[in-house]
Amino acid sequence: MGTGVGAKGRLNSAILLGHQEGKWNIGLTYDNRFAGRTRHADAERINYNLTNNYQQTQVRDDDRYEETHNGKLNLDFTPDKRHSIGLEVNGNIDNQHNIETLLTKIKSNTQQFVGANQRVSDERETGKSLEFALNYNQTFANPKKKLAILLSSGQNRDRQNTDIPTTQLDNAGNPTGSIYKQRTRNFEDAGVSNARIDYTVPVTAHATLAMGYKGTFRNIDADFVSEYQQGGNYFVNTAASNRFIFQENIQAGYLQYKGSAEAASGKNIKYDLGLRAEQTNNSGKEGSGKNLFTNSYLQFFPSATLSYYLSSNDFIKLGYYRRINRPGLGQLNPFIDITDSLNPHGGNPYLQPELVNAIETGITKEWNKNSITVNLFYRHAINSIRTLITLNNNGVALVLPQNIGSNNTYGLEAIASFEPLQLWSLNASVSVFRQQMNADNIAKDLSNDAWSGYAKCINNFSLSKNSKLQIAINYTAPSVTPQGTRIAVYNTDWGFQQKISKGRGAIGLVLTDVFNTQQSGITASGKDFNYYRNFKVDSRAVMVSFVWSFRTKLKEELLENKYSND
Questions:
Q1: pTM value?
Q2: How far apart are CA 155 and CA 286, in angstroms?
Q3: What number is the average pLDDT over the span 7-18?
Q4: Are 39 and 71 contacting, i.e. CB atoms less than 8 angstroms apart?
Q5: For 319-357, what is the HEC assignment?
Q6: Where does 2-548 sit in CATH, by number?
Q7: Contact between residue 367 and residue 379 where contact means Cβ atoms under 8 Å apart
Q8: Where along the chain do its domains lie?
Q9: Which residues touch 138 (CB under 8 Å, ≥6 apart)?
Q10: How far apart are CA 333 and CA 313, in angstroms?
Q11: CA distance 41 to 28
Q12: Average pLDDT value for the chain
């Protein structure tokens, strides 16, 4: 159980029960989270070609309450040493209530007051999900021969209702006229099911052949209604209301050959060759039954790695792979969120998957209790999914995800683990890379090019046999978007844990974002606008936790931070 205090109170608790009887093993888990969160945002947009809608400044404050309940059942049956069957059932209930207050002021290009309004969005959302997973594993007399079968299915049911009253204000901030009322309803049912079979068989004493099949089936049925009030009654805005139905099935088969050999120098060599073929079929429809699109395509994804071992722990690695990143169901949902009428955002049902070709090479070295890995990488992607802003003549900027032409990324990353002292160990990772984005397919000369990177260091201090202190430092450098940059993000978290009663219990204290530095923001510009936005969440919080195990010692090395600062 844990409790936290930031700008809002936070509480979470969990209970885990397990029992083993002969060949059966059963486990039950329940956890919950109750959290409040505030967020403040400042934004400004300059519209170069709109003299009477030239400068838009916005101040936004969010007050959100979140409630989450999760339950999980695990049931395992092991009839003998070579066979096992497992069932996992997960249930989730989410409730959110978010009140967003947005103050907007508009000035002309001569800094004359044009208008102002306060827009309040009272959003209430409930979400329910249920997931099943059934797995079967079999081993054989030869331990290199294996069979695994996995069947899983998950369904989500989300319901969101939002009331949006807008009050016009004069230059002094006083209300003028009547309140204009709108409301939206977004009901969404989505599901993802998977079927997977993996079979590995030894080919020689030093090589194995793996083969398998994976089927993925995705669907979404979203019904969105936008209404406005007139004369005391609500009327449907048919131009902004619709129903979106999306279905997709992906059939994939793969072969993977792994082996090792001895080089002429006597050094060991390991190699891995693979090929995956994917057939994708999907379609999108409007509520009226009209087809928006239908796609059917076959794609191949090769991969290859070669590792040359300088010693048993030190090796050089070279690899190539081709991958696919598909848009999420939320990114495909075309409905427009109007809580900010000047910067509405939504999804894009016409998104295509991103295709990535990558080459990596690196070296790994281990000694005593230390290790370091350094990699050089190059990735070329087409159809990368990025958010773009389009300014309309009425001063409204529409924010949608779109496929950009290409995205090249190359750089260096290093991961290290050290133990400078017996009481102090650290894990660190750092990456420096250059991104080159080209979105000429959207607009001429729409591209960006810059260096970026990130660094993370987790320090662990063993103050005594039962006491641990952890200090985590995170930094993400400014990164590029097709139209601008994201600002740097940095913070540090501290955690302390004291185990009690011979390791059966633990008391923890965590301080998140100790110096209150974590924030996010973007800058963006086009031929007709310049825009910036900065978000600050109440990320600094104190969390106190108590954990107790009735029959076994705790497995946690350190207390985990249970709270997201997004």
A1: 0.88
A2: 21
A3: 82
A4: no
A5: EEEEEEECCCHHHHCCCEECCCCCCCEECCCCCCCEEEE
A6: 2.40.170.20
A7: no
A8: 2-548
A9: 82, 83, 84, 146, 147, 148
A10: 48
A11: 41
A12: 92
